[in-house]
Specification:
Blueprint: H1 3-6, E1 40-44, E2 52-56, E3 64-67, E4 75-76, H2 78-93, E5 100-108, H3 114-124, H4 134-140, E6 146-150, E7 154-165, E8 170-174, E9 177-180, E10 186-189, E11 197-200, H5 205-211, H6 217-222, E12 228-232, H7 234-241, E13 244-247, E14 256-257, H8 259-262, E15 275-278, E16 294-298, H9 300-303, E17 313-319, H10 326-335, E18 340-342, E19 357-364
Amino acid sequence: MSSEHKQGREVLSTESFGAGNALRSTVLYVDAEVEASGLTSRKSHMPGQRESARVTEGRSPVRLGLADGPDQAVEWAPWIGSFIRLGSRLRSFIPKLDGRQLVLAISVPQRDYAAALIASGWMLSSPAPELASPIDAFRAASQGTYLRAVTSNRIHTGAFTWLQAGPDDLRVLVAGKVLPVARYEAVSELDSAVESLHSVLPAPGFLAQFVGASGSWAERMAAPPSDLVLVGTAKWLRDDLAACIGKAGDPKDVPCPLSNYVLPVEKGAATWSTQVVSAPKLADEPHLVERHQAAILDGYGAIKYLNDISAPIAVCVIDRSVADESAAETVMEARSSNSRPVSLENELHWRPPGGVEALAFTVAL
């Protein structure tokens, strides 16, 4: 890896993804010569807009770690926070695209967790939804309206049946469940019919608390955005989303799955957001990636469909552990078609962690 990369400056060249530049380290993503950037919580908003949680570089480092399960101690690595921060940077870049598509390619020693972490940053940086109060939502609903209703610890999704006065309080029947209206913290109306679904409210965990997303957690679970799609080997992506993230070195912290932030569409889940699409399905079902703001293409099996992606943001995760340069060649072909370079540091405001190479450019949609 070149000295320019170690100093955090991007190198926009076709050699950036060449096999000759493959990282020699056997440690996933970690370069001992690169100091990790920290995370800080920052809230910013324009007049009339709800605040959105943002993950950003700061002076007070927060050491994030990953583990295979919630009962295991998380292990810190500098690339964890860096990829989460990237997801946030990508969302904030959308207003600058002016009708073009941003293609960001990142070349990593191994693909593990990269897509899931970027997706987590993307979701956590979404604006908190503005919802009517639960009582107003129930009063506005007619019989057969489909709702997602969130209490302090559960999510009930299904048809609204009635709102009635009980002996002591108002009670509501939603998704076959009768509860006092006062139990609900957030309610949203769905745009399509669903069967009755019930699940435990996903925990916000340390990361959501730190970036300020936990303050609107019920609203985020009631009405999550549906603007992201992950494409690749579906099983690998779901395994990555099952990994738990937490504050490294804090024995009191309880890690939570990355899926709590990404909310993959799964059978039986009472809330969902992100589609996880098997790459081979795109050949026959291209509509699966339409109407999204961002698509993360994990591996060549997904990247080969780059030209068919119409999302404003397309992220290509190139796995250098696979001895095949087809993915890099596909990205370079896209770059050669009336592209405009984007500076990672000066425009996207992101620096790749050690061992990771990246380039970004925009193309016409």
